[in-house]
Amino acid sequence: AYNPEMRDPLVLAPSDDGAHVGFWAGLQEKGHSTTHFFADNGQPRWQRYACPPAMIDHAQRQLKLVHDLEYLPDPYAAAFQNWGQDPYGGAWNSWNIHVKGWEVREQMLQPLPDWPVHIIGEAYSAAQGWIEGALQTSATLLDRWRS
After folding, report:
1. For a 10 Å CB count at each end of the chain, is N or C smaller?
2. Comparing C-alpha atoms, which of 52, 44, 63, 46 is closest to residue 24?
3. Residue 120 CB-density burial (10 A; 0-12 exposed, 13-18 middle, 19+ buried)
4. Mean pLDDT in the chain?
């Protein structure tokens, strides 16, 4: 549920492929696996993929460096998914037959009108699978905020 007391929201959702997957995989703790995907122990599914402290620390260091920040609040929560592990073995997204992608793209920028959550990225763009798609959706959202 949305909590208005949380004033420092941040979403970092890197999606890597190729050699870069190994970098983040090297920061995951031994035994971290997606094979518990189907297990239901009552906790929200995302909590089953909690980031280890080393991964959070490194992501925080990168954010500070890239954005020239001296202070960055600790995240409220962090999770990650290695799509190369079982049961997936990889990941790709594409529009289903009969889906009007231009309508879905528009809706996904802010799926719930009264909730301050915005979804950007290549998955909901006209250029799926390419960084250009993420840049396009980011630019669209920024243009809306400016107007």
Report:
1. N
2. 52
3. buried
4. 79
Does pLDDT of 139 surpass 90? yes
Task: Name residues whose C-beta falls within 8 Å of residue 54's C-beta, 6 or more positions apart in sequence.
Answer: 27, 29
Where in the chain are all domains bearing CATH 1.10.10? 101-146
Report the C-alpha gap between 55 and 120 in whole angstroms: 23
* 101-146: CATH topology: Arc Repressor Mutant, subunit A (1.10.10)
Query: Tell me: the pLDDT tens digits for 67-125?
Result: 898 998 888 888 887 777 777 777 777 888 999 989 999 999 999 988 888 899 888 99
> What pLDDT is attached to residue 3?
59
- Residue showing tokens 């189907």: 38
